[in-house]
Specification:
By secondary structure, this protein is mainly α. It is 78% helix and 0% strand. The chain has ten helices and no strands. The longest helix has 36 residues. The relative contact order is 0.24.
């Protein structure tokens, strides 16, 4: 189960693109906010699945449809905002040092919390996260499993999500990698925005077809 969970993290999806997008535009201490938000959303779904609420929600057609539509519209919004941004909005990055000694400290301010909310919204509005954990837990959880094991499992899986996303942020914030992203941020943000928008549009279309 642990292997399946980690392999799912390695598969690029909207959350991965958001982490890259934030790491490109912000210093590491701010971009970590997206990683924390995504981890918190995953933790909430994990908790709901562990106490049995997740299974109830997944059987509600209206709930899942609403979640799917909201998630698609959110990704579509992020994509449109990225595509509308001007090149001048990224100019400050060209003058940013490749390795700022103060760039890796956690910056818990308005920018951090903005990124946190974006990451949390992305994770919580993705119904696939709920269904993924439900299917994963169905393999190992049964009436004989005690609460201690369930709590340990939830903490472990949340930690793995957080550590992986923080690793991506840190990896993109070092040396020549950071320098490359500083020069290419405008184009990378446009590319990730286009993909997020396309995924969002596809989800909205799919939800509308089911409505």
């Amino acid at each position: 189960m642990a292997l399946a969970h980690f392999l799912a993290l390695l598969s690029p999806g909207p959350d991965f693109l958001l982490v890259v997008k934030s790491a490109v535009k912000n210093r590491a201490g701010v971009a970590v906010g997206v990683a924390a938000g995504i981890a918190m959303a995953n933790a909430l779904y994990i908790a709901l699945c562990l106490v049995g609420v997740g299974a109830i929600l997944s059987r509600s057609t209206a709930w899942m449809w609403g979640l799917k539509m909201a998630g698609g519209l959110f990704l579509l919004y992020l994509g449109v905002m990225a595509l509308r941004a001007r090149k001048s909005d990224y100019r400050f990055l060209e003058h940013q040092p490749a390795a700022d000694p103060n760039a890796h400290g956690l910056a818990v301010g308005p920018s951090f919390w903005r990124e946190f909310l974006v990451g949390f919204a992305s994770g919580i509005l993705n119904p696939k996260n709920l269904l993924f954990y439900l299917s994963l837990f169905s393999l190992v959880l049964h009436d004989g499993v005690d609460m201690g094991f369930k709590l340990a499992l939830g903490v472990w899986m949340t930690t793995v999500v957080l550590v992986w996303d923080v690793f991506i942020v840190v990896a993109l914030s070092h040396g020549t990698v950071r320098s490359f992203f500083n020069r290419s941020a405008y184009y990378i943000d446009k590319a990730t925005g286009a993909v997020l928008g396309a995924v969002g549009a596809k989800i909205v279309h799919s939800a509308a077809s089911q409505g």
